[in-house]
From TrEMBL, chain A:
Residues 34-241 form the Aldehyde dehydrogenase domain. InterPro entries: Ald_DH/histidinol_DH, Ald_DH_N, Aldehyde_DH_dom. GO terms for molecular function: oxidoreductase activity. Gene3D superfamilies: Aldehyde Dehydrogenase, Chain A, domain 1. This is Aldehyde dehydrogenase family protein. Keywords: Oxidoreductase. The keyword Oxidoreductase applies. Signal peptide: none annotated.
Automatic annotation (TrEMBL), chain B:
It comes from Micromonospora radicis. Pfam families: Aldedh. InterPro entries: Ald_DH/histidinol_DH, Ald_DH_C, Ald_DH_CS_GLU, Ald_DH_N, Aldehyde_DH_dom. This is Aldehyde dehydrogenase family protein. CDD domains: ALDH_F16. PANTHER family: ALDEHYDE DEHYDROGENASE-RELATED. The keyword Oxidoreductase applies. Belongs to the aldehyde dehydrogenase family. The active site is at E256.
Length: 274, 476
């Protein structure tokens, strides 16, 4: 009896909840697979999808976002072996799943910790509350392929932002597989969009895009490129999350910084009186 | 209008020196290359004083002094002692508040009733508020041991000279940073008096440095390698240039920039209250306010009634001597700003909007602009898109709440917004949808040291005021 021939997977982009090939028709060989080589046009398409998803996602209740994010963690847990087969250590998959659960719980708590009533000197109701900034471009760290990726996506979306993620160019399979997790978790299409390929092609387009509100440069290790991206981001005054120089300990308590860097604070006043 | 006898506040409380040096390392010093500027009273064009123009060498000297003070004195000092210096400063400001208010009105052109009753009380309150944070930083929600950044470069505008100084210096010092501050070239005098107050409070030398000058001085400060933090309030164009200048550096940046706020009046709003809010929104401080309600969005069904009332009210505004206690609208801060307002209002008329001002006699000397409104404005007009920063209101109409939201958010800015309606659920529905950092409902232009202030989108990033305001000066 002959050995069964395996069905191989095609690794594609993740835009607007769908898995298209690059509009450029290109791919590159990495991790023994042909992976889509995203173009500048793919990056722009991803921003359009992310913008379209903002209203529904930012407008969803915090409880609902928390439920959906927790569902993502359930799906991650179930696909543990699939990530291990891609070379992600089992411990890292577990840490990534736990990280996702941690962030999921913040959806309906952050406004209480980060906002609140302000005791102004007058007869006014005055309340500050955080709101999502909108569309966030995220450059995922080169490694660890899954924990690093989860640690930059979850804090951006838990508060209601939508993201366009430039995945690790050298280890994109975990990102595409995570996209399959997201696609089966009731996460609305367009909330997370994932581009694979060269950072030098997609990221400058995202940094300069006038409909992107913030950019997370965590995965940019080249100082010159980071400076160039910041200059592009200045055009519409994007909020910029800069890369931390040196080695990053992805297993440490992440704190609130990644969430709060991508939030706006809105303060509402109203007089008190009869 | 009623005839009022003149009621000028006395100038005698202020002692302006013929010339001022730079305040570096606790002393007033001459600039290295001896450049100078003149600060002018915009209400009379009288030269008030000669001001040093700091160059790159002076900036360097100031940054070094700030660094030394940070490392040797202010950084290691316990928070409770930093707090006491800030409380001292707050108290001296309260004690010398009339002097500061008169000086502010002389140098800036704003009415004394505003400098006396709005600016100065808020300045003192700001120092008082942040003084109390200096020894409570571990409880501010930024981790158990938040650290200051180091030396802060701060560049401030001319519209609220001393208040913007307070917004910048108080949180920076409370968090343990030292500062080099550049006041605006047309309004440096209260900052220089503040330097004397620092001396009076015996604030250690180098903790606060004031380097006067124009744009080039600011650029040298922002670009200096020894600076860890840049905080800027001013125009969006300059903010963009600063964001580019600090790209790739370690400098943490916060920006408080321009605005084009919508002030939205629904058909159920109490008209008299709304009209007071509209007037306050656009004519407070001659409209030199980044969060001014410069676009009036009024529901179509009440537009005529609201505009009739508004015009009646505008005809009662007294334009003139900033030191007169009855003055509502003072002088435009500079000839350059007046030219900008004139240019944009001419564009408004040329693009087809209808211009209206009440009969209004303007003084012969000085820089003046009558309160003005434009009707028939479309969203494409320059006067609906660009920040005028003057007493000029653009009126647009809407039919549904959704249309009001759409029009209000149709701007690259996002600093503030106003809502006037008696329906509570509508206020909250609107507030959720307006992309602006401050939303005033049934009020406008209210400020408080406990209340975070700052913009969405191209109005900048970071917040000033409140617990949130500490974040800009801590390594979080």
């Amino acid at each position: 009896m002959s050995e069964r021939v395996a069905v191989r997977k095609t690794y594609k982009l993740f835009i607007g909840g769908k898995f298209p090939r690059s509009e450029s028709g290109r791919s590159y060989l990495v991790q023994d697979s042909n992976v889509s080589l995203a173009s500048r046009k793919d990056a722009r398409d991803a921003v359009v999808a992310a913008r379209a998803a903002v209203k529904g996602w930012a407008g969803a209740t915090a409880y609902n976002r928390g439920q959906i994010l927790y569902r993502v963690a359930e799906m991650l847990e179930g696909r543990r072996e699939q990530f291990v087969a891609l070379g992600v250590p089992g411990d890292e998959v577990d840490a990534a799943t736990d990280r996702w659960v941690w962030y999921a719980g913040w959806s309906d708590k952050l406004a209480q910790v980060y906002g609140g009533a302000n005791p102004v000197a007058g007869p006014y109701f005055n309340l500050s509350a955080p709101e999502p900034t909108g569309v966030v471009a995220v450059v995922a760290p080169e490694a660890p392929a899954l924990l690093g990726l989860v640690s930059v996506i979850a804090p951006a979306i838990v508060t209601g932002n939508t993201v366009v993620v430039a995945a690790s160019p050298s280890a994109p399979l975990a990102a595409v597989t995570l996209a399959e997790v997201l696609a089966t978790s009731d996460l609305p299409g367009g909330v997370v969009n994932i581009l694979t390929g060269r950072l030098s092609e997609t990221v400058p387009t995202l940094a300069a895009h006038m409909d992107v509100n913030a950019i997370d440069l965590t995965g940019v290790t080249d100082g010159e490129l980071a400076a160039d991206l910041e200059v592009r981001a200045a055009e519409n005054l994007k909020r910029v999350l800069r890369p931390v120089p040196g080695d990053h300990d992805w297993t440490a308590d992440p704190g609130l910084g990644r969430m709060t860097a991508l939030l706006e604070t809105k303060t509402v006043w109203h007089p008190k009186g009869v | 209008m009623f005839e009022y006898a003149p009621a000028p506040e006395s100038r005698s409380v202020v002692d302006i020196k013929p010339s001022y040096g730079l305040f570096i390392d606790g002393r007033f010093v001459d600039p290295a290359d001896g450049g100078s500027l003149k600060s002018v009273n915009p209400a009379s064009e009288e030269v008030l004083a000669e001001i040093a123009e700091g160059g790159a060498q002076d900036v360097d000297r100031a940054v070094r002094a700030a660094r030394k003070a940070y490392e040797k004195v202010w950084g290691p000092m316990p928070g409770r002692d930093r707090a006491k210096y800030l409380y001292r400063i707050a108290r001296i400001i309260q004690e010398r508040s009339r002097e500061l208010a008169v000086l502010e009105s002389l140098d800036n052109g704003k009415p004394i009733k505003e400098s006396r009753d709005v600016d100065l009380p808020l300045v003192a309150a700001h120092f008082f508020y942040y003084a109390g944070w200096a020894d409570k930083l571990p409880h501010a929600g930024f981790g158990v041991n938040p650290q200051p950044l180091g030396v802060a470069a701060q560049v401030i505008p001319w519209n609220f000279p001393l208040l913007m100084l307070a917004w910048k210096i108080a949180p920076a010092l409370a968090a343990g940073n030292t500062v080099v501050l550049k006041p605006a070239e047309t309004t440096p005098l209260t900052a220089l008096l503040f330097a004397e107050i620092c001396q009076q409070a015996e604030l250690p030398a180098g903790v606060v440095n004031i380097v006067t000058g124009a744009g080039e001085t600011g650029r040298a400060l922002v670009e200096h390698d020894g600076v860890d933090k840049v905080a800027f309030t001013g125009s969006t164009d300059v903010g963009r240039a600063i964001a580019r200048a600090v790209a790739g550096s370690r400098k943490k940046l916060t920006l408080e920039l321009g605005g084009k706020a919508a002030n939205i009046v629904f058909d159920d709003a109490p008209v008299d209250q709304a009209v007071e809010g509209i007037v306050n929104g656009i004519f407070f401080n001659q409209g030199h306010v980044c969060c001014a309600g410069s676009r009036l969005l009024v529901q179509e069904s009440v537009a005529e009634q609201v505009l009739d009332s508004l015009k009646r009210r505008m005809a009662q505004l007294r334009v003139g001597d900033p030191l007169d206690k009855n003055t509502d609208i003072g002088a435009i801060n500079s000839a350059a700003q007046l030219a900008r307002i004139q240019e944009l209002t001419e564009a408004g008329a040329a693009e087809g909007a209808q211009r209206w001002s009440p009969p209004c006699e303007l003084p012969e000397r000085g820089f003046w602009f009558a309160p003005t409104l434009f009707t028939g404005v479309t969203q494409a007009h320059r006067i609906a898109r660009e920040e005028i920063f003057g007493p000029v209101l653009s009126v647009l109409t809407f039919r549904t709440p959704a249309e009001a939201v759409e029009k209000a958010n149709n701007t690259p800015y996002g600093l503030s917004a106003g809502i006037w309606t008696e329906k509570g659920s509508r206020i909250l529905w609107m507030a959720d949808r307006l992309r602006a950092g401050v939303v005033w409902a049934n009020t406008f232009n209210k400020f408080d040291p406990t209340s975070p202030f700052g913009g969405y989108k191209e109005s900048g990033y970071g917040r000033e005021g409140g617990r949130h305001g500490l974040e800009a000066y801590l390594n979080v």
